[in-house]
């Protein structure tokens, strides 16, 4: 018996509904069936995949029969042929030489940089003075990724680079789901702004490559140093253009997603006073233990002592996964769990919608970090998958989790954040990753030493 069902609405109404409200469309499609056919043309049939076992088939068991296709082609305009856009053997080759950048020892070293950069931001925040939280988190994570991956201090260029990243993301998002993709060389206002943003980012990246070649020892512990040391099977170094593509990939995929997740976390904590209180208790207890023992924790040790902070991040990633949609395309016909899918089939997988299954999570719209007190082992493998899965799963997922938890803990230890009045409820904006539409102005309130002592 087939597990594929046809969507009841017409092709035209589906198109306009998705263009107007893609998240609402995907959430409404989830209860319709395990795999929902959008009844598009037989030339390129399109399916929404809702069942975890079908997701696992696409991302893991049969991934060699699929490619990223259209989405990778659009992203390639910005990041070239890096790990996020390469397919099959080039992807496997790139992943092999990039994986050591995310070994545990390196992540522990990165943790110290995360703490240092976050404390610098905390020192700059003013009690009671509103801050554009999206901009603050973007610049913070941009500085962290530049320092950890490229051993580069952005300093005064940080705001300009963050703006360039934002331009590329907005233009890419508007293109991926557009029915017509205009050539990148056409001189439209969007294309011109996008190309200028790429030039801004390229200047930083190629500058870092040149600096690393001039002083390789200074970059030995960074991703850039790893790239400089890598040789192919014939002993040849990685070309500068390929290094640029990998650095651009890490720059865009490695900081914007974490920044967006953190803004959602601050928003969710504000609306869940009980969760915010539990987080403060945990943070204050950690510092009290340090005081009693006389031993200061390393950044990696601090991370291990914050299980509830990790749960806050995990629950944020459940409700607001940065990768809100995953696309796959099949060149040839193939079978999957008893159903046949024709050549040129396209599949849309939405963690955002799948994570909102009441049958799995119970009251799935509620923010409850304690769901993750025992990890995610109680659910089907792909009922919760904020970092994707299979060989194309996020290579930096452990780094991203560590970074988000340390930023959250370091700032929440010193400040409470509340939304500036008059903004209303946050509205998700599904760009390349999921952000709060229009950003969020928040007011930092410094926690007094007495308050921390009383809560501890």
From TrEMBL:
Q: Which residues cross the membrane?
A: none
> PROSITE patterns this protein is in?
CYTOCHROME_P450
Write down the SUPFAM superfamilies for this protein, in alphabetical order.
Cytochrome P450
Keywords of the record: Heme, Iron, Metal-binding, Monooxygenase, Oxidoreductase
The family database entries (InterPro entries) matched by this protein are listed as: Cyt_P450, Cyt_P450_CS, Cyt_P450_E_grp-I, Cyt_P450_sf, Cytochrome_P450_Monoox
Pfam families recorded for this chain? Answer: p450
The UniProt entry's sequence similarity note says: Belongs to the cytochrome P450 family.
Q: What name does UniProt use for this protein?
A: Cytochrome P450
| Organism listed in the record | Paenibacillus glycinis
């Amino acid at each position: 018996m087939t597990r594929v069902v046809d969507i009841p609405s017409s092709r035209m109404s589906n198109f306009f509904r998705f263009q107007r409200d893609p998240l609402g469309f995907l959430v409404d499609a989830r209860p319709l069936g395990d795999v929902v056919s959008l009844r598009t043309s037989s030339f390129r049939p399109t399916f929404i995949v809702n069942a975890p076992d079908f997701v696992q088939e696409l991302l893991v068991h049969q991934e060699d029969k699929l490619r990223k296709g259209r989405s990778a082609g659009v992203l390639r305009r910005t990041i070239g042929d890096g790990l996020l856009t390469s397919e099959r053997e080039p992807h496997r080759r790139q992943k092999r030489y990039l994986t050591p950048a995310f070994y545990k020892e390196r992540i522990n070293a990165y943790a110290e940089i995360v703490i240092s950069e976050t404390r610098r931001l905390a020192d700059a925040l003013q009690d009671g003075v509103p801050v554009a939280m999206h901009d603050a988190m973007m610049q913070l994570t941009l500085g962290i990724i530049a320092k950890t991956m490229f051993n580069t201090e952005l300093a005064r260029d940080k705001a300009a680079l963050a703006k360039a990243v934002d331009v590329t993301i907005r233009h890419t998002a508007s293109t991926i789901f557009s029915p017509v993709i205009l050539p990148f060389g056409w001189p439209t206002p969007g294309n011109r702004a996008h190309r200028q943003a790429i030039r801004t980012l390229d200047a930083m990246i190629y500058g870092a490559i040149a600096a690393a070649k001039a002083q390789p020892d200074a970059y030995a512990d960074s991703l850039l140093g790893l790239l400089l040391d890598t040789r192919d099977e014939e002993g040849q170094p990685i070309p500068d253009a390929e290094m640029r593509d990998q650095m651009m990939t890490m720059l865009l995929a490695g900081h914007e997603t974490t920044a967006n997740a953190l803004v959602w976390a601050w928003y969710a904590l504000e609306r869940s006073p009980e969760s915010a209180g539990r987080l403060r208790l945990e943070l204050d207890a950690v510092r009290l233990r340090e005081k009693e023992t006389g031993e200061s924790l390393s950044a990696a040790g601090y991370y291990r002592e914050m299980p509830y902070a990790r749960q806050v991040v995990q629950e944020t990633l459940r409700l607001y996964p940065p990768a809100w949609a995953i696309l796959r395309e099949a060149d040839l016909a193939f079978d999957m769990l008893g159903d046949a899918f024709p050549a040129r089939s396209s599949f849309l997988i939405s963690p955002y919608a799948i994570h909102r299954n009441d049958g799995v999570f119970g009251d799935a719209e509620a923010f409850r970090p304690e769901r993750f007190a025992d990890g995610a082992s109680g659910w089907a493998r792909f009922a919760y998958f904020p970092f994707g899965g299979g060989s194309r799963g996020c290579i930096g997922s452990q780094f991203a989790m560590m970074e988000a938890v340390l930023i959250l803990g370091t700032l929440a230890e010193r400040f409470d954040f509340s939304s500036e009045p008059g903004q209303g409820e946050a509205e998700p904006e599904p760009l390349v990753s999921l952000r709060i539409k229009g950003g969020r102005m928040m007011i930092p309130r410094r926690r007094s030493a007495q308050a921390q002592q009383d809560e501890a």
